[in-house]
Structures are given as structure tokens and as C-alpha cells.
Design a protein that fits this description.
Strand 2 (40-48) and strand 3 form a beta hairpin. By secondary structure, this protein is mainly beta. The chain has one helix at 2-24; strands spanning 27-37, 40-48, 51-57, 60-72, 75-94, 96-116, 123-139, 146-163, 168-179, 204-216.
Length: 218
């Protein structure tokens, strides 16, 4: 319930911010993202010989969208949501050493700051910094037990908008996302459900390549 409220406040804030920006004059854009997320081949969390997990988080298709306001000609403030559904094959200890391929859903909410470079009317390179949260949902397919975790997350991105018309552009982008272990929450990798298994989540790095579309709303 708390996560749904966070997402609701996030979306409401985005809409209100865009409405105010539209009334005062800055341009508003809608960004759609579709990228390939590469695997992180080493994630681990070790407390003792009987409390640990190690393995990888597989690659997958990541998608999402962002609402961006440009208060100045070459500066953007963007509210972004991204989602990745993938697998996490992990070795862990639960009475004995076990191996399971978990289902992992990653949801990211970011406030980002983008800097654009004016090359020509059709080519618009940019770079950006994002700060926010990652919400991870984990399911053990062997017994349907689930766990979740909310972490502090950050991201870096660089790319270019290629404007096909005055209002529509093609987006090419490289991106790095990371979730930090030290900030809040726990994920349970184990067969005992929410009351057992190993809690924690090692720092996770996710590199993306892809792009999407950008639409000028104002």
C-alpha cells in the first residue's frame, strides 16, 4: 500500500508540475523509453556460511516513460518511471546449499536533470543525472513465496534526440542504473518466504542501450 501511495504522489506531482510549467511558458516533453538491459553477472550478500546468496541478475527488456519540463532552453527536469522484468539465478543457503532462478521485477522512480547541447535544429545531444528509488519484487517460482525491497537508486545517461519533425523525435541513449545496498528495505532470497532466507541486496549495476521517442507537448 505504501508503494502505491508513493507512486500516486509521484504521478500527481508530475502532472501538477507540468501544468504549472505549461502556464508559465517553459516547454514540456513526453519521453518514451525502450532499452536492452545487460546482465549483472555478480551480485552477492554474505553474512556467514549459513546466511548468504550469490549469483547474477539476467538481461532483459526495460521500458518506461518520463515527463520533462525545460525551464531554460537547454536544461530539463524529468520525472521518470522505468520497469525491468527478468530472472535472478542464485545460490543460497536454506538448511542446505540450494540454487533457484528467482523472478525479479525492478521498478524505478527518478527525478532527473538533463543538459542539452545545441548542435543544429535536428540533432540534440544530452547527458543527465537521475536520483530516486528502486522497488524490487522477488518471487520464488518453486513455492510462490515473495519478497520486496525499496532502495535508494541513481542513474547516469547520455544520448541524442534526432528530431524527425517539429514535434516528434527519435531518442538514442546509453544508461547506467544502480541501487545501493545500504539504504533501507530487504529482499528475501530463500524458500522460507518473508520470514526466512537471506535479507539484503548487494549494490546492483545495470547498463542499458536503446532509445525511444520524444514528443514536444509545448
Amino acid at each position: 500500500m505504501k508503494k502505491l501511495l508513493v507512486i500516486a504522489f509521484f504521478l500527481a506531482g508530475s502532472i501538477i508540475y507540468a501544468q504549472k510549467a505549461s502556464q508559465s511558458g517553459p516547454s514540456v516533453r513526453l519521453n518514451g523509453y525502450a532499452t536492452y538491459a545487460f546482465a549483472d553477472n555478480h551480485v552477492d550478500s554474505y553474512y556467514s556460511d549459513t546466511q548468504y546468496f550469490e549469483g547474477s541478475i539476467e538481461d532483459g527488456f526495460e521500458y518506461g516513460g518520463g515527463l520533462e519540463v525545460l525551464p531554460a532552453p537547454y536544461m530539463g527536469v524529468e520525472f521518470t518511471y522505468l520497469r525491468l522484468d527478468t530472472k535472478a539465478p542464485l545460490e543460497y543457503y536454506d538448511n542446505t546449499i540450494k540454487f533457484t532462478t528467482f523472478n525479479l521485477a525492478s521498478n524505478y522512480l527518478f527525478l532527473g536533470f538533463n543538459k542539452y547541447v545545441n548542435v543544429n535544429p535536428r540533432i540534440e545531444p544530452y547527458a543527465g543525472l537521475m536520483l530516486g528509488m528502486a522497488i524490487y519484487n522477488v518471487e520464488n517460482p518453486e513455492n510462490s513465496n515473495t519478497g520486496s525491497s525499496t532502495k535508494f537508486a541513481w542513474g547516469l545517461k547520455a544520448g541524442s534526440n534526432i528530431w524527425l519533425s517539429e514535434k516528434i523525435g527519435l531518442k538514442l541513449q546509453a544508461q547506467l542504473l544502480s541501487a545501493v545496498q545500504a539504504i533501507g528495505g530487504s529482499v528475501y532470497f530463500g524458500t522460507g518466504g518473508a520470514g526466512a532466507g537471506v535479507s539484503g541486496f548487494s549494490t546492483y549495476y545495470q547498463f542499458n542501450l536503446g532509445g525511444g521517442l520524444v514528443f514536444k507537448l509545448k
